[in-house]
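Subject: mismatched residue count in predicted assembly?

I count 493 residues in my input, but I want to confirm that the predicted structure covers every chain. Input:
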Amino acid sequence: MSESAELRKTPLNEVHRATGARMVDFGGWDMPVQYSGILDEHNAVRTAVGLFDVSHMGEIEVRGPEALALIQFVTTNNAARLQRGQVQYSGLLYEHGGFVDDILVHKVNDDEFFICVNASNQDKDFEHIRSHNRWNCTVENAGSRYAQLAIQGPRALATLQKLTRVDLSAIRYYWFTDGEVSSEPARIARTGYTGEDGFEIYVTPERAVARWHELIDAGRENGIKPIGLGARNTLRLEAKMALYGHEIDASITPLEADLAWIVKFDKGEFTGKAALERQQSEGVKRKLVGFEMRGRGIARDGYEVRLNGSPAGWVTSGGPAPALNRNIGLCYLPAEHARAGVAIDILVRNQPVEAVTVPTPFYKRAR
Amino acid sequence: MNYPDNFRYTKEHEWVSVDGDVGTVGITSHAQSELGDIVYVDLPAPGTAMKAGDTLGSVESVKAVSDIYSPISGEVLEVNDTLKDAPEKLNEDPHGTAWLVKIRLTTPSEMNGLMDSAGYLAYVGT
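Triage response: the counts match. Full output below for your records.
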């Protein structure tokens, strides 16, 4: 049992075990993969509300008079356009244009940015940002100072509103406010990784268990359920949100990953810019595209994709789409074929199974 | 969940129940619980010849795919087609209506190498 002793734990680890969650090693973290069942949890988020412990996610804080200059240099999106209290999806790139990570940049103040990063990348991200710090900023790897809870689903606002005096309806999508939950400090962001409306709140680790129980109680009349990483993955896949290590990694650029929209070439210099400009002028050779299965079978990560019988790409994420009752996936294909309506085969356990590329996202919530 | 005494069990979490020279094969309740929500079942065509340990088919949960191995040698006589449209039955009734295949045994002595219910329950640690 020495291996499990080395796994990192969130402040809610005991709560998950007491709730009967099935735990897995997720990038070195002991995390709940499911509680009541992935389909049941997925459905709860699509139709009611779900509560996620995402305290394994990392937080990096950048402070100083020239904080914006450092943020601009290490990220692809244009952080100069952020107002105080606004959030932006962005990329951290290597010089060769591949992803260090995908991140959420929160502008706290002109001289302070708060970055939410992937759990297993946080130390690498921190070193990457620090190595480019020519502006004498304070860069802090602050993950241990925050627990993060996500409240997601059509009843998320009604649930969280019972615990705060902050007018949640006034927080727009991809904005945040520093307020309180249960009269204790909380950063409340209207962000998420599910394709539903919802909030991600950042609180002190010592109060994470109290907040969790309060949210479960507050959400009871709304049908709240705790949600594990299994449903988090099916939810984000239906919404076509990238997962590091699948759609994106060090060998993939944003132009390939259908994330050109987070690359702002006109904002000035940034790491990876030259490589992306070169790729754009030479032409992007492979692109990410969604597909759904036509034949019987489920595509899984890593499966080969064939065009007219020849190997042409690979599946980055695949599985059932519970809200759509279809089997879906994302894959890389030669750019000229990466559009909707192309017949492909997925090699499912050595058997080609028919599929067709489709527009994404697969799921879009009604507004 | 009831683990019938007349079943025999494998380390790969299949069960087999023999009536005459026909063995009915399924996956155990422990297996379905570990897999989670089962959304797809792939089974062989009737007439397929199986050796003990051959891949009989696969079951897929929302998260992952798992092979099923034939606990016994023989010819596949019948396949439970109801699972094609209702794979969730494997979560609900794995030791009963959600059997996978019926196989005509060619080597009944193979049954002696499988675990009884007490042995299997000890093996999975319940």
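Chain A touches chain B through 20 residues (CB under 8 Å). Marking this ticket as 'not a bug'.
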